[in-house]
Specification:
By secondary structure, this protein is of the alpha/beta class. It has a domain at 6-137 and 164-220 and 397-472: Rossmann fold. Helix content is 38%, strand content 14%. The chain is built from 18 helices and 11 strands. The strands form 2 sheets. It has a 9-stranded mixed beta sheet with strand order 1-2-3-5-4-6-7-10-11, sandwiched between helices. Strands 8-9 form a two-stranded antiparallel ribbon. α14 (343-353) packs across α16 (374-383). The chain is globular, with a radius of gyration of 23 Å.
Length: 486
């Protein structure tokens, strides 16, 4: 992250130069924007909305408003090609990510607008939320399940046709919004599922793309959530191996795998009971810790190295009967995700683009995997009810583009590992794949990555980048103080 303390003098000069400048009319297009405030940002943005047909092909029925926010370039005479942020999930709204992406692009924002559009079905763009009548219990949060009853209730309450919320339709929306904002070519930045949107835009609208930064590639031919099973297991095995290879971690947790195997076998026979405090009220709640709760608790932290660094400690404590460290770190992760994820939108994408391609042979393989097939079975049941979009015939084919592309992958990513980046790179002749071997899901904000992205966007050349700095980023582990016992 770029901090104010590191660039204080330059920041003060820039603020002084731009303090009297009026808000820039982003792109000088026809979409009306007004000054607005976004939570977590200390300067004004420009906001507006753009109406589109829900059924873009039929052009009839419901119209929906797409929420748009622009962080205008700080300097006059800005570059004409903005940064366009494409959120992940699928189901995340882009505008809610403004506090996270603004620091990432702070230097680029001096001369380029940052554009955030809540994709249809997310954020403030007719979200396909599946809000239950009652707040979910802590037990439900730890189960990490997708109850069929909840899916059916959600489908019955939606004021939307889920068949019109898949990726190709969102790309057509974005093209229309960019035109209304007055932008010709843009610099795409996509994270996780946002990379799928970016790739589809590169396929359908090549003239729009000046550059594309893809962080954690989720191509259209992967099979969510099936791919999580194998990739999650690989990331978890790497965690165990890395702990065994690091002297401090190995000394603190010498029997980690044995403890885990014994714990899992014990929970499979007889679930345990644990007490954990509600993060809002502080009230203690009983949680039934099953084998599935354990597996979910091991998988989620793999997304973030900082949280995963606690897993050896949490496993050891759980093996001794104290489940609080494991449950607490998962609660932190789950609460943050649920605040900005539209479950209905998630299902509209996954049930149309991924689940239909899962084969019986795929399912047979998951039954032998460490994380099993519980999550996959949940989605199979949900998608049996969820309406599916009609996709273009070439949707699952590799994207071929001559645009400059920077692909970033975390070497221990449980969801979008480097193998997917390599696969996508094969048909992008002006692309470069940079791997941070000890990072997980989301590389852009870590270490030297913001500087690499800045240089790439300015020069529109990924192949000349020196990405060796990513290889030096460390993987931490939380180790008990000397003499302490779990």
């Amino acid at each position: 992250m770029v901090t104010l303390s590191r660039v204080l003098a330059a920041s003060l000069l820039a603020l002084a130069a731009t303090a009297c400048a009026p808000p820039r009319e982003a792109g000088h297009g026809t979409l009306e924007l007004a000054e607005c405030r976004l939570p977590g940002l200390d300067r004004a943005a420009l906001c507006g909305s753009h109406e589109v047909w829900e059924d873009r092909e039929g052009r009839k029925g419901r119209r929906i408003a797409l929420k748009v926010a622009v962080l205008p370039a700080r300097r006059r005479g800005a570059e004409p090609d903005p940064i366009v942020v494409l959120a992940g999930g699928p189901g995340q709204g882009a505008i809610a990510l403004a506090p996270q992406v603004a620091p990432l692009f702070t230097r680029l924002n001096d001369s380029r607008d940052i554009v955030l559009v809540d994709q249809r079905g997310t954020g403030q763009s007719h979200p396909l939320d599946c809000k239950a009548d009652e707040e979910p219990t802590l037990q439900a949060l730890f189960e990490d399940s997708l109850p069929e009853k909840m899916v059916l209730e959600c489908l019955g309450k939606l004021d939307a046709d889920p068949r019109h919320y898949a990726t190709p339709t969102a790309v057509a929306d974005l093209d229309e919004v960019l035109g209304a904002l007055g932008y010709a070519s843009v610099n795409l930045w996509g994270g996780s599922y946002g990379t799928r949107v970016a790739l589809e835009l590169m396929r359908r609208l090549p003239a729009r793309v000046r550059t594309a930064t893809l962080d954690g590639v989720a191509p259209s031919d992967m099979k969510l959530p099936l791919s999580f099973v194998a990739d999650g297991e690989a990331a978890f095995e790497k965690l165990l191996a890395d702990c065994a290879g690091e002297p401090g971690c190995r000394a603190a947790y010498p029997d980690l795998r044995r403890d885990l195997d014994a714990l899992r076998a014990r929970l499979a026979r007889s679930p345990a009971r644990a007490q954990i405090g509600d993060p809002v009220t502080g009230e203690a709640h009983a949680v039934r810790v099953t084998e599935n709760v354990l597996l979910s608790g091991l998988f989620r932290p793999l997304y973030a190295p900082e949280i995963a660094s606690l897993l050896p400690f949490a496993i050891t404590r759980a093996a001794g009967g104290d489940f609080n460290p494991l449950l607490a770190q998962n609660l932190e992760f789950t609460n943050g995700l649920e605040k900005n994820l539209s479950v209905g939108m998630h299902l509209s994408v996954v049930c149309s683009e991924d689940v239909p391609r899962i084969t019986p042979a795929d399912l047979e393989a998951t039954s032998r995997a460490f994380f099993g097939r519980a999550l996959v079975d949940d989605f199979l049941r949900a998608c049996a009810h969820w309406p599916r979009a009609t996709l273009p015939a070439d949707f699952h084919e590799p994207v071929r583009s001559t645009a400059p592309v920077l692909i970033l992958s975390g070497g221990i990513d449980p969801a979008t590992p480097p193998r997917l980046g390599e696969k996508v790179l094969a048909t992008l002749p002006n692309g470069r794949h940079a791997v941070a071997p000890r990072l997980s899901h989301g590389v852009s904000a870590q270490g030297c990555a913001p500087r690499l992205i800045e240089k790439f966007v300015r020069e529109a050349d990924a192949r000349s980048l020196d990405v060796s700095c990513l290889e030096r980023l460390p993987r931490p582990f939380f180790v008990l103080p000397a003499g302490a016992r779990p």
